[in-house]
Amino acid sequence: MKLLWNAVYTENRKLSRSPVLWGMLVFLLFVTGIRSGGADWNEHLGNMSFLFASVFGLMGFGTITAWVFGREYADRTVKDLLALPVSRTAIVIAKGLVIAGWCLASTLMIFGFSLLLGLLIGVPGFSWSMIMKQFGELLLIAVFHLLLCSPIALLASISRGYLVPIAYAFTTLMIALTAGPTALGAYLPWSIPALHLSMSGLTTFPLGKASYVILVLVFAVGALGTMSWWKRADHR
């Protein structure tokens, strides 16, 4: 356990000092600021949640994941990492924990920024119950997108870099935007977060239990595949 937490500490230092993390956060805050405002707080925060469900999660979380796993190959540090007295499984878990922690922290920062903007511009209809409902919904959407990050980690490991996983994230975003509003969207993992968000209103193609099972299966395949790849990384 101590070795695992040492690995988490090391991975956290790498990511927290990366311009990729802070550059992505500034970009997400900028876009949030542009989309701020609305007839009431429900619409104001709903705009921010929709950005998370449709774009921020896939591209923002995906880019961070691609960097954490792909940088080891791009910087040629993977051999040094594999030589450490830490299990490969622990390294993958440590990277996953750091990614999840910073993605959730970014979610909180953006939510807080959206609240501050709403207060500054005087959005009407403030209600603590509505704020907490929107906050809970946003956290759930963020968790859904974290589940979708595991295939990106696998692709970054297999391709030994950033380009393929980022291209994958962009492609899945395009698929989600085009096929999400159709009946097929309920079975496409990248469309499910946005469709779940719209479930609070009237949806033409509501989600069923199978949709959420698909999210878990995608995570399991990506996570197990990444661990398996790293266990054999020095043989490839």
TrEMBL record:
Keywords for the protein's UniProt record, in alphabetical order: Membrane, Transmembrane, Transmembrane helix
Pfam short name (any one): ABC2_membrane_4
Protein biosynthesis is among the record's keywords: no
Segments passing through the bilayer: 20-38, 50-69, 90-123, 135-156, 168-190, 210-230
Protein name: ABC transporter permease subunit
Lineage: Bacteria, Bacillati, Bacillota, Bacilli, Bacillales
